């Protein structure tokens, strides 16, 4: 408070109080004699909305929850769901950003077993990414969409979890048509 002698201010306690504020990522305080305290604050940057238990919380750039945040100000942020999703979100968003054309169609990402992601697209297709090499699978999906227009086809699920193949689940009526015509189940030689 005003009038407190500058040398009696406990800088560590003041820093701890500042860092207890939900939006403060880090803080530093320096004495500038004779009469100034220099405070530097780094704010948390909201990265995603985490849906859990019927509510949403903001996730920051470190995968931490920003407590008591008003999510109404952030409807444009990507949505993540599932146990362990906040901590894994920064890495996921890096993977998604590596293919901006695909990323533009992502509506939600669901953490499965706290080890891998299922990605929901705006056309209703679900992408099952592998636990290991998710970025490589994401690039492979982009290549398949570019060469074969895979995301424009009648597909419900594209399973990228196996390193040597892509597995497609199609609606039952499409599956019956494929079986009747005797067509192979693969979309193209690349899948």
Briefly say what this structure is.
This protein has 191 residues and is of the alpha/beta class.
Arithmetic mean pLDDT: 90
The computed structural class is alpha/beta
End-to-end separation in angstroms reads 68 Å
Q: Rough shape?
A: elongated
**Total count of strands:** 11
Unreliable sequence segments: 187-191
Helicity range of the residues? 25-40%
Taking all Cα atoms into account, the compactness measure Rg is 24 Å
Task: Please summarize the sheet with the most strands.
Answer: 9 strands, mixed
Binned strand content: 25-35%
The count of helical stretches stands at 5
Placed side by side, the strands forming the largest sheet appear as 5-4-3-6-7-8-9-10-11
Give the helices and strands as they follow along the chain.
HEEEEEEHHEEEHEEH
């Amino acid at each position: 408070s005003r009038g407190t002698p500058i040398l009696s201010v406990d800088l560590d306690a003041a820093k701890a109080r500042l860092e207890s504020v939900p939006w403060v990522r880090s803080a530093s305080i320096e004495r500038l004699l004779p009469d100034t305290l220099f405070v530097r604050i780094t704010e948390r940057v909201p990265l995603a909305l985490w849906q859990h238990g019927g509510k949403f919380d903001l996730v920051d750039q470190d995968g931490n929850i920003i407590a008591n945040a008003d999510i109404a100000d952030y409807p444009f942020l990507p949505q993540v769901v599932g146990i362990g999703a906040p901590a894994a979100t920064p890495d996921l968003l890096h993977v998604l950003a590596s293919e901006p054309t695909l990323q533009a169609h992502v509506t939600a990402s669901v953490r499965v077993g706290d080890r891998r992601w299922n990605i929901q697209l705006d056309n209703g297709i679900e992408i099952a990414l592998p636990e290991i090499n998710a970025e490589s699978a994401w690039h492979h999906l982009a290549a398949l969409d570019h060469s074969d227009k895979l995301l424009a086809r009648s597909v419900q699920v594209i399973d990228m979890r196996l390193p040597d193949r892509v597995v497609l689940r199609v609606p039952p009526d499409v599956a019956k048509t494929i079986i009747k015509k005797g067509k192979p189940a693969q979309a193209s030689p690349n899948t």
